[in-house]
Amino acid sequence: MQSLHVLVADDEPVSRTVVGAILKKAGFIVSYAPDGEQAWQRLDGPTAPELALLDWEMPGLQGPEVVERMRSKETQTPTYVILLTSRDSSADIVRGLRAGADDYVCKPANEEELIARVNVGARVVQLQAALADRVRSLEEALANVRALQTLLPMCAYCKSIRNDQNYWEKVETYFTQHSGVSFTHSYCPNCYDRFVRPELEALEDAQKSQERLKRK
Amino acid sequence: MTTDRALDPKVIDRLRQLTMPGEPEVLAEVLQLFLDEVPKRLRALQTALAAGDAAQAARLAHSLKGSSGNLGADSMTDVCGRIDELAKNGDLGRCAPLVASLTDEYHRVELEIKQLLQTS
Lengths: 216, 120
What we know:
Order of helices and strands of chain B: HHHHH
Structural class of chain B: mainly alpha
Largest interface: A-B, 18 and 20 residues
Strand content of chain A: 5-15%
Shape of chain B: elongated
Largest sheet of chain B: none
Distance between the termini of chain A: 84 Å
Distance between the termini of chain B: 28 Å
Radius of gyration of chain B: 15 Å
Number of strands of chain B: 0
Helix content of chain A: 40-55%
Largest sheet of chain A: 5 strands, parallel
Oligomer: heterodimer
Structural class of chain A: alpha/beta
């Protein structure tokens, strides 16, 4: 399993260092932000860490405000956010979760609890990434299906199909390219009677007349 | 309220075990940070109280509570929590005697930290 990146944002250097050391020991890659503004700068963008531990009370932007900003932007792989707080009233907890946090941990953090909760976050992040991958490949498949649903110009005589680049292609080539379908060749009963049988009979006749010639 | 130790030995032991092989000692780093940071905030707290700035006093008491909590300095954490509460309610008059005991607590903690830093 690849190591996930956790941002620890806390203006209080002792807590920040202890939390970071706990996470490093648990195998995470850790970076730090000393206030909400800098945390937001790290979290806003395509290279945002997969997980963030945000202190609730920081000068400038507070933890819940950072989460609100993060959640106002749409992304397929949102950062999993845990608020670190010494507030334990349920009104505060509800406020933090409503702002968009995924979880909260009371300070000072208990080592086992912190790791357990961050590991829950890691599971969610990995599920989300797998889901985003799956959605991407389904969208690709859907695009191909749509291409096949459009009106296809086909030659009335030789059954060739005109492709997007205005070239005439054999049906087999066109469908192999656009759908991943491949063909095996056979014949239907009608065509057997109409084409195959006469050819076989003609071959047999030819063989018989050759044999007659030999005997003579 | 007073215990014989200013720092909870279990917490100190946990911090000692956080050091990764080949990396600087976490315990020493955290103790040093505490000594560097906390006196500044203690002075700022006194200034805020003298100026009657309750919001700033609450913020500082809160952050001191965080620092001391991480080292298992339980008595100091308790005092900070009480100052935090009082300041939040604007009751600065009752903070003054608590700040005196906070300073005493800090000195006990400081002494133990210095001993730990010498032996580690």
